[in-house]
Amino acid sequence: MKVISHRGNIDGRRPSMENRTDYIDKAISLGYDVEVDLWKVGADFYLGHDGPEHVVLIGWLDDRSHKLWVHCKNLEAVEFLSSNKYDINYFWHQEDAMTITSKGHVWSYPGIYVKGGIVVELEHKDLPSHIRGVCTDYPVLYK
To answer: Taking CA 141 as the corner, what is the angle to CA 136 and CA 142, rounded to the nearest 5 degrees?
Structure first.
């Protein structure tokens, strides 16, 4: 099962650290993929859940594209990634039960276990064997 760090978290929520490049890099160095929240405002890119908080360079995202699951938080981020050469796995959703990423993976809300999909489960819990992976604040408990 693929284990994905939610915003860089490894063993619980750390809201002040989430979506920061150094925090994400640490999770990647420990072997995890990471889900990040991306905003595009004008010519600039930002990471942040509730709004654009931390400036990030598109090159930083591109260099880590094999380890990132990019949750686009505004239309501008989707439009940029969908119309450029970057091989970044991205998706957009708000309250949808599930969505499909740009690389064809099903990404679903907690409790929705799609065969072969990735489920967001922020707390640690037993998961059905038919899913492909989990995005969580507790990846260390799943490895």
So the answer is: 70
d(CA 67, CA 85): 17
The pLDDT-based confidence of 81 (bands split at 50, 70, 90) is very high
What confidence tens digit (pLDDT) does each residue in 15-33 have?
A: 999 999 999 999 999 999 9
The beta-strand segments (E) located in the chain are 2-6, 33-41, 44-47, 54-56, 68-72, 90-91, 98-100, 106-108, 118-120, 133-136
Q: What's the CA gap between 13 and 123, in Å, rounded?
A: 10
pLDDT of 46 strictly over 90? yes
Domain encompassing residue 121: 2-142
DSSP 53: -
pLDDT at 143: 78
17 vs 105: CA distance, rounded Å: 27
Q: The CATH number of the domain where 103 resides is what?
A: 3.20.20.190
pTM beyond 0.85, yes or no: yes
Number of domains in the chain: 1
Residue 109 corresponds to which amino acid? Answer: Y
